[in-house]
Model the fold of this input.
Amino acid sequence: MSTLNVTTTSTDTLTGQSVGGSIAVTGENTSTNTTDLQGGLCKVWTVYDQNSSLTVTDSNGSSSVTDVGNAEGTVNFTVNFNTSLGYATTGVNGFTNAGGTDLNCLLTLNNANSSASAARFFGPGFAAAANSEQQIVDFDYNSRVFWGDLA
Done:
């Protein structure tokens, strides 16, 4: 094995020479711990407003977001993941109610309506109504991120 020391490089494609083109990246503060470059990359992310009208403000790897009900939406992927539910995901919702109170919550993945090509989420957040009842609301700010092997 030889070593090439480069200060700056510019390229359009990196391909590993081992199994599946995998590239090992040396971890922080060590020369022995590594992480897999492909496995560690976020494959899909999206940020959208579902409150007034569904508007995707920024995304990568997401073709669209579908509004399927109050506080519920489906993120559609541009490239399928390797298996149904073969990804790790997280996200957060945010909403400012009429009284100016910021409400935030983590989301819940709806496994029954998710697949390798799309993920449905329910944000179990509530906004206090004027009559003190709780209402399920569409959120102003929604973010979703996904990691996993693509098909």
